[in-house]
Amino acid sequence: MGSESAFLGTVNYWLAAILLLIGLHGMLMRRNLIKKLMAMNVMQVAVIMFFISLAMKTGATAPIELPGVTEVDAYINPLPHALMLTAIVVGVSTTGVALALLVRIYNHYGTLEEPELLERMHE
């Protein structure tokens, strides 16, 4: 029973690691640039999930002043959540720019497959 509870306590870390590996596999093994971009987004979700999991604090409450609560340890630190919200906004922005660049690449070269694209670039 002890090993089950140890696994359940770390399941979010395992999921983040699995997502990171799936994203890494997609970045290394796929030849289509859109698939590589989506794999990069999966890796981003894994990192954000990992940091949010690290920020979790059992028995703590939101960082809003409550009557009778004077200890700092009773509150969750809002900084990691704010940083990950910023990371989400930056990730969405970079994905949008990358998709716009991929549209331009496709319009110019007629493909998004990496080997074909490299051949056409050297012609």
Automatic annotation (TrEMBL):
GO terms for cellular component: membrane. It comes from the Bacteria. Keywords: Membrane, Transmembrane, Transmembrane helix. The chain crosses the membrane at residues 6-25, 37-56, 82-103. It is a multi-pass membrane protein. Its main location: membrane. InterPro entries: CPA3_antiporter_subunitC, NUOK/Mnh_C1-like. Gene3D superfamilies: 1.10.287.3510. Coiled coil: none annotated. It is found in: Membrane. It holds the Pfam family Oxidored_q2. Belongs to the CPA3 antiporters (TC 2.A.63) subunit C family. This is NADH-quinone oxidoreductase subunit J.
